[in-house]
Every structure is written in structure tokens, then in C-alpha cells.
Amino acid sequence: MPIKKNRPRVGRRKKGTGSSLPKTALAIFLITAALLKSGAADKLEQSVKRAGNLFASAENSKHVSMNASSFDIDICESSMPYFPSGYSETLIETESPVSVTIDGSSGAYAGESPVYVKNETDYEIDIDALLSAPDKVELSGSDVQVLIMHTHGTEAYTPTSQNNYTPSDTDRTTDNRYNMVRVGDEITSVLNKRGVKTVHSDTLNDSPAYSGSYNRALEDITAYIKEYPSVKLVIDVHRDAITASDGTKYKTVAQIDGADTAQLMLVCGTDAGGLTHDSWQDNLSFQLKIQKEMNTRYPGIMRPLDIRAARFNQHVTPGSMILEVGTSGNTLEEALSSARLFAETLADMLLN
Question: Which among 116, 150, 129 has a CA at the least distance from the CA of 306?
Fold first, then answer.
């Protein structure tokens, strides 16, 4: 077996289509998630204390290299960020926000180029075995094959003159022209144009309340599966968030054809949290193949795949996944660019 364990709703719907730290200044790098569930503040404070002097800032510096801890934000409303040791990435300070590329090459992650993994469970992961495992996601017939939806649909990006919005909360908006629904529209459009029949739920499962959004999202998914039992793949599209204690935003970028493009990250849920999820290894196998293909075509576009204890509603189909498209520091334009690349690559994989 490729994996061994060490120890024991429905709302409105749309159909269709490594150098050392600078000595001059040390600062604690604080990661925050918007609208964390009740009781999160105490846990976050403990995490920050453990993190201690994580990141350096150099006044008047345009380039900062660091050997510090991971600042990957948590996307689960029931868990808190953490800071594993041995992390090293490069920050390139722009005007605002600050750009960072998290490509896994620091040595803090399992795997090797083009596939890196951040394993947050007690499972041992055999990447090679999973990459060579038979696919459990195959298209069949002419019916709907893919569902795009959003547990946290109101998540949004840094406004630009092209895409400016009135926020409903910090880095969030219920205006679907500028939030994750817009990104989902892009993925849906590309897949349908390529002949992969796809439907898109524009239900905002995190509005008006953030807490409980995964439960509402499961109702949303279940209703679509009932209406479209042919669905093979459920893609829950989010964006990440990395914010410093001084309010500075960080965006994850890759240079694709000379332009900043939002980095992507796949999140694979498991049964390690205690909820039934018998097919998580099949999900992980498919996601690793996507990771490999994306980074082969567009080096650096994927952040290390995040394997989590929580299930994230990925037990519904063997092709379920969370897709993180950039962070709140990215622009919508950067996010749409990487979303199109993801959809084109996914279409090639499914059709071939």
C-alpha cells in the first residue's frame, strides 16, 4: 500500500455552463485568517509566541531572503496556523503587497521537483506509489462531469483600477464579480469550452456567517450531486491569506511568461480527523498528478500540496479537492490567469 498510518445546504444556484536574517531588524511575522471561529484568538496568540522572531524586515531593502518558519495560512475554520521549522523562501518586496514564491525548494517539504508535499497528518506518504497508481477519476458519457463550488465564496483579492469593489468585510465581498465566484466562472468557462461539461454553484456558503460554512457547503454539494449524479470531480475554489502584524499583505506569485501569476495550492483532506473518508488516497493520487503536470508545464506555479487531517467534504467523490488560488494580496487579474492555466491543464488530463 502507498500509505501507512503510524498511529492509531442548498441556496441560490447557477446551472450550466537561504541567507541569514538581517541583523538590523527582527520582526514577528503574524499570519491571520479573517473571521476565525470563536475561541481562535487564544490559540493564535499561543502560536505566535511559539513562532517568536520568525521573519526579518530590512528597511529600504528591495530583496529579503530568509531562513525561518512556514507562513502557510490555515484554510480550515476549525484549525489554527502552525509554524514548522526549517523553512526558507525568498521574498521580493514590491510596493504593496510583498510578493513571495513558495515552491517547495527550501528543503522543508517532502518530495522533489516538481512535486512537493506538506504533510500535516500522521500518515506516511509514498509519493512515487501514489503518482503511479491507477486513476479513479475518468470521464464518462456526455453528462455533467465537474462541479465547481465555494465553501468561502466571499473571499476576494487586493482591488485594482480594473477590479475595484466595496468590501463586505476585510478582503471579502458578496459581489460575485470580484470574489471566488468570479474565479470559479473562469474555470467553468474554460472546462466547458474544452468539452468537459461543468456546472458551477455560486452559493456563498460563508455569508452571512463564516462559522458553519463547511456544513452548508456539504448541503450545496449534495444537492448538485443529486441533480447531476454523473459528477466525477468536485473542486472547492478558495484563496489563501497571508498578512503581517503591521497589516502588510503578502501575495504568492510565479513568473509565467514574464508576468506575475498567482500561485496555486491543492489541499487534500483525509480521515485523520476521525470523519469517514475511505477514498482520500484516491483523491491524493489525482491531486499529486495535477501538481506534477502543472509544475512541469509552468515551473513554480504550484505551492506544495497540503495534506490535512480534516475531511473538507472531499469524501463525496474520488476527484474532490480544495484549490487555493493565490492569497488576498494577489490581484483578481493574477488569480484569473492561474485559474485559466489550471483549467486548461485539468481538461488535458481528463480528456486524455
Answer: 116
Asked if 55 contacts 29 with a C-beta cutoff of 8 angstroms, the reply is yes
Alpha carbon distances (Å) from 81 to 9, 169, 175: 28, 21, 28
Residue 274 CB partners (closer than 8 Å, separation 6+):
none
Secondary structure of residue 87 in the 3-state scheme:
strand
Q: Over 168-206, what HEC string results? A: CECCECCCCCCEHHHHHHHHHHHHHHCCCCEEECCCCCC
CB 250 within 8 A of CB 329: yes
Q: What is the pLDDT of residues 174-202, one digit of tens each?
A: 999 999 999 999 999 999 999 999 999 99
Domains and CATH numbers, the chain: 26-109 (no CATH), 125-351 (3.40.630.40)
Average pLDDT estimate for 310-332: 96
**Cα distances (Å, whole numbers) of residue 246 to 57, 61, 100, 264:** 11, 17, 17, 25
Q: How far apart are CA 281 and CA 87, in angstroms?
A: 27
The model's pTM? 0.76
The pLDDT tens digits for 247-273 are 888 999 999 999 999 999 999 999 999
C-alpha grid cell, residue 190: 474554460
Collapsed DSSP state (helix, strand, coil) of residue 283: helix
Q: Provide the 8-state DSSP code for 162.
A: S
C-alpha torsion sign, points 338, 340, 345, 347: positive
